[in-house]
Amino acid sequence: MTARTVLAVLLLAALASAQVAPTAPEPAPEPLPGEARCGFCRTTGRTSSGADSKFDLELESGPTWKVEFCSMAHESDNMGLPWAPCPRCKTPSLHDRAQKEWDQRKTDGDAWLKERRRVDRVAGADKPLLHLQTTHLILVWNVPKTTTKDKKNHDAHEAVHLYARRMEEFYARIQSTFGITDRNNMKNRHTLMVLEESDQALQCGPAYTMLQGLPTVKRAGGSNHDSVMVTWWDRATFPKEADMWRHVIHNFTHALTAVYYDMTWFKPGKVGLSPPWLNDKYGWLDEGLAHWFEWDYDKRCETYCFREQTTDSRWGTDDWRKNIYKAVSGGDIPSFAEVVTKPSQSLDAKEHQFVWSWVDFLMQRDASVMGKAMKMAKMEHETRELLKESWGLSMLEFEVKWKAFVLETYAPTKKS
């Protein structure tokens, strides 16, 4: 086992011990002494409700997440639950226990949905929006049909669960790869609104992000505000589902790296990088990571955030590896020392591709220390310190080894 493998195992173990996993099912309760057994429910206090199979999605979960509420399920018969309190139960304690759980679910769900329906009013929606909450996410959705790369069609309910599952898995991947736990984050729940109509997004954008006039807006989570992204599915911009998912990946990466900020890192009186995200002083890392995960999905990068000046400009072809290889071979390289001082919004189209490549080199060298580098950035260490402490590279060594990496890895004869 290599040192890197050992480190990865240790990081995964630390994550597992630090995260709060969904509660495991309790053992089946037993009747109290002297109580009769019930043949109707096999002495469980519960009977099968015959719920529609579409609500099997409500039972989805992972090692660090579960589905908590779904508006479609909650408004259906029996809240979409596969069980109901036994109506003829001969075991009073078990019936009462089941009834109490059912009633609490109803009370909590009603309160949750009442709060969520405020979004519908803000959006001016003529039909109820679909709301879903998981351990780390709140999703709002009303796109009626989604077709994925595997040619499967998903209705709105299936699609919102699909995105919840993907985003929770992505959340866990970021944390396990970078050695982050929920304790290190300012916020541990993020909101994504994917709306069918531009007018709905333009209504919700200012209300939930304090930004307006653009189809996609987001606000990084902080000590006194939530992490929110609002967008609409513009088929001209995102003709395929893969295009929308890549867009979400890019922005969700920004959201997750933004909230990684733990006050215990600092001495009393120190607050570190404020606001506690990367785009203002470490644009190369902020954008490089967001593009890296885009590219990792399907070898394309097409998302430029609303604050960046490169929304309509492009450099080279859609093949970023080819563009960078050609530029490095010809000595057409921007100054690393200058670019790493720029905020995200000042990067031009060419620089976006280079910061992606710089992050690609570092991720290939050792992805596990990226969390350490981001922590150092939040503590306002200079880029040269990030490179030295995290990857053992001086600025000069970085540039030399990165060029060699590009010429070897991005060569046209190499597969991407």
Describe the secondary-structure layout.
Layout: H1 3-18, E1 46-48, E2 61-62, E3 65-70, H2 71-74, E4 83-85, H3 92-123, E5 130-134, E6 137-141, E7 145-147, E8 153-155, H4 156-178, E9 190-195, H5 198-209, E10 217-219, E11 227-232, H6 241-259, H7 283-298, H8 320-329, H9 336-339, H10 349-366, H11 370-378, H12 383-391, H13 395-409
Helix pairs in contact: 1-4, 4-6, 6-7, 7-10, 11-12
Question: What's this, in brief?
Answer:
The chain is α+β, with helices and mostly antiparallel strands and 416 residues long. The protein folds into 2 domains: 62-81 and 117-260, Glutaredoxin (3-Layer(aba) Sandwich); 263-416, no CATH class. It has helices at residues 3-18, 71-74, 92-123, 156-178, 198-209, 241-259, 283-298, 320-329, 336-339, 349-366, 370-378, 383-391, 395-409, and strands at residues 46-48, 61-62, 65-70, 83-85, 130-134, 137-141, 145-147, 153-155, 190-195, 217-219, 227-232.
- The overall number of domains is 2
Mean pLDDT: 91
Distance between the termini: 27 Å
Query: Approximately how much helix is present in the residues?
Result: 40-55%
User: Which regions have little confidence, pLDDT < 50, spanning 5+ residues?
Assistant: 1-20, 306-311
* Order of helix and strand elements from N to C terminus: HEEEHEHEEEEHEHEEHHHHHHHH
Level-2 CATH architecture of the largest domain:
3-Layer(aba) Sandwich
How would you characterize the largest beta sheet?
Answer: 7 strands, mixed
Instruction: Round the Cα radius of gyration to an integer and report it.
Output: 24 Å
Number of helices: 13
* Bulk shape: elongated
Number of strands: 11
